[in-house]
Specification:
The protein is mainly alpha-helical. Helix content is 96%, strand content 0%. The chain contains 1 helix and no strands.
């Protein structure tokens, strides 16, 4: 019995080696399959990336064409705008030159008028000064004449007043007597009518 057990054990060891070999083969096969799938997935990703890159490239090319067209249009518009600005600038320069000449002519005319006005003003000032001098002289003569006339009138007035006072002094006694007589007469008449002169 013991010899049979040993042989059986040998068979079991060989069988285990075979099984281990099968497992290794299966593992290697599984590993190869997984590597193949991984490579296929990687290849698919690279293809997707390539397609996206191609699409991006096409889009960028299209965008570049659009931008080049827009740039060309902008250049054309810029040239047109520049030409129009040059034309307007030249027209403005001509207009400014014409305006400057007109202003210079106007300034010259105004200077001539100013010179004429200054000469006329100087002549008018001289005439006014001469007229003022004549007026002052006339006023001085008139004032002297007025002072002389006032002195004469004062002399005449004082003489007349003195004569009038002398005459009044001469007739005053006569007036006093006449006044007293009239006073007595009116007093008597009032008494005849029953009136008291002191009550009036």
């Amino acid at each position: 019995m013991p010899p049979k057990t040993k042989e059986k054990r040998k068979k079991t060891g060989a069988q285990k080696k075979k099984e281990n070999a099968d497992v290794e083969v299966k593992y290697a096969h599984r590993l190869a399959v997984m590597e193949k799938e991984l490579l296929q997935d990687h290849l698919a990703l690279r293809r997707d990336e390539a397609r996206r890159a191609k699409a991006s490239e096409d889009q960028l090319r299209w965008r570049l064409q659009v931008l080049e067209a827009e740039l060309e249009e902008a250049r054309s518009e810029g040239k047109a705008i520049y030409a129009e600005m040059c034309r307007q600038c030249q027209a403005l320069q001509k207009e400014m030159e014409t305006h400057r000449r007109q202003q210079e002519e106007e300034v010259m005319g105004l200077r001539k008028k100013l010179e004429t006005c200054q000469r006329e003003a100087e002549a008018a000032q001289q005439e006014a000064e001469r007229a003022l001098g004549e007026r002052d002289q006339t006023l001085a003569q008139l004032r002297a004449h007025v002072v002389d006339m006032e002195a004469k009138y004062e002399e005449i007035l004082h003489g007349n007043l003195d004569q009038l006072l002398a005459k009044l002094r001469a007739v005053r006694p006569q007036w006093d007597g006449a006044v007293l007589r009239l006073h007595a007469k009116y007093k008597e008449q009032l008494h005849q009518f029953g009136l008291n002169p002191l009550d009036l």
